[in-house]
Design a protein that fits this description.
Blueprint lengths: L16 H14 L7 H14 L3 E5 L4 H9 L5 E4 L6 H8 L3 E4 L22 E5 L10 H11 L2 E5 L7 E2 L2 E2 L6 E5 L12 E5 L2 H10 L21 H11 L2 H19 L5 E3 L6 E2 L5 E5 L1 H4 L3 H10 L30 H9 E4 L7 H12 L1
Parallel strand pairs: 2-3, 2-4, 4-5, 5-8
Antiparallel strand pairs: 1-9, 6-7, 6-11, 8-9, 10-12, 12-13
Helix pairs in contact: 1-7, 2-7, 3-4, 8-12
Bound molecules: pyridoxal-5'-phosphate.
Length: 370
């Protein structure tokens, strides 16, 4: 819980309470509380339609989909990925017994730099796992071209990319598979939740088995599956939340525009502009703090905001390559990742969400200006 005076970086999108209670009543009456119930089926259909994707499989969170995507494609050996992400991206590679290989990012987008991928490919490489950071699309054409040339699979961690479109088409259909998170902190949430997006029905079937321990029917277990199922209560919550997500994104859009207008004149503060042909979701509003020109460092600004009860977040800091066992890999060396370090040390995500008041917005701006 946070007090009324605190401005959080995000706020969960929540359905109308009374509407939710009505759905709960149905679940109580039916006593069907999990395992592919009516709400689960309805939410899969509704989300596939909303996101403009052919098939989608719901999950209990956004991390199991990463694990299963690597499993179902039988990824072994080395997986090329980005150090500039949430830890779940690399953790999923490790949990599959594979070695993550870090490639530097493009400073224009924060995403893996396709031009640096090829140099990281070895005979052990089997896949690339890029991330659409802040929902900014990766260079999917360049990545596809490299993957095709080297016979590699591509799994997008699209956790931030809810509703993001490129030239009117969902970016969630890029690569062999894409995964998404519906965690409370994301643009759209089912409290905890997630999905894998796939292009064919056969793949959906296989993934649906894997998320239910490998059960194809009562007696047939097709392989070593896991439990990744989403329950009926969160599916019902998710269905109701889908009614509000467009308005939430519109509100975020307005706040992003207002931030850009207010921050433009400030020396030493830069931000990402909207990309033509891209429908953004405004899940984050990251700024880059240039100490030389702004006067104080990112960390000093971050702490100054905290003292005024404004909770910005340093997404993504620290870099994934600096933690745990990952830091011992040769690709984790600082010299290999200069752009990732530069961004990680200057990034600050400002509060942006559907419940943000004009007053709160002004408090954030005042704190950055003064
Ligand atoms: C949120 C997130 C995840 C994990 O999602 P959960 O639903 O929290 O398990 C994975 N990757 C990225 C980039 C994320 O931001």
């Amino acid at each position: 819980m946070v007090d009324n005076n605190t401005i959080t970086v995000t706020s969960p999108l929540m359905p109308d309470f009374d509407e939710f209670v009505k759905e709960l009543k149905q679940i109580w009456v039916s006593k069907w509380i999990t395992n592919n119930g009516d709400f689960h089926k309805k939410l899969e259909t509704a989300l596939a339609e909303y996101l403009k994707v052919p098939y989608l499989s719901l999950f209990t969170n956004g991390t199991i989909p990463l694990l299963i995507a690597l499993q179902v494609l039988k990824i072994k050996g080395e997986v090329i990925t980005t150090p500039y992400s949430f830890v779940a991206t690399t953790h999923s590679i490790w949990w599959n017994g594979c070695d993550p290989v870090f490639v530097d990012i493009d400073p224009a987008t924060g995403n893996i730099d396709p031009q640096k991928i090829e140099a990281a490919i070895t005979p052990r490489t089997t896949a690339i796992m890029p991330v659409h950071v802040y929902g900014i699309p990766c260079n999917i054409m360049a990545i596809k071209e490299i993957a095709d040339r080297h016979g590699l699979k591509v799994i997008y961690d699209a956790a931030h990319a809810f509703g993001v479109e490129l030239k009117g088409e969902s970016i969630l259909t890029a690569g062999n598979l894409s995964t998404i998170s519906f965690h409370a902190t994301k643009v759209y949430n089912t409290i905890e939740g997630g999905a894998i997006i796939m292009r064919d029905a056969e793949m959906k079937k296989e993934i649906d088995f894997l998320k239910n321990f490998g059960f194809a029917d009562e007696v047939t277990i097709v392989g070593p599956g896991i439990n990744g199922k989403l329950d009926e209560i969160r599916a019902a919550y998710g269905l109701l939340n889908l009614n509000h997500v467009n308005v939430a994104i519109e509100t975020r859009h307005k706040i992003a525009d207002a931030y850009r207008k207010a921050l433009k004149p400030i020396e030493g503060i830069t931000f990402f502009e909207d990309i033509p042909d891209v429908k953004h979701n405004y899940g984050y509003f990251p700024i880059l703090v240039d100490r030389e020109n702004y006067g104080i460092s990112r960390d000093e600004l971050y702490l100054k905001m905290r003292r005024q009860n404004i909770l910005g977040r340093r997404y993504f800091y620290p870099l994934i390559n600096t933690i745990g066992t990952y830091r011992h890999h040769p690709s984790a060396a600082r010299e290999n990742l200069p752009n990732a370090y530069q961004m990680s040390e200057s990034i600050l995500c400002l509060p942006i969400h559907q419940d943000m008041s004009d007053l709160d917005f002004q408090r954030v701006i005042d704190c950055i200006i003064k």
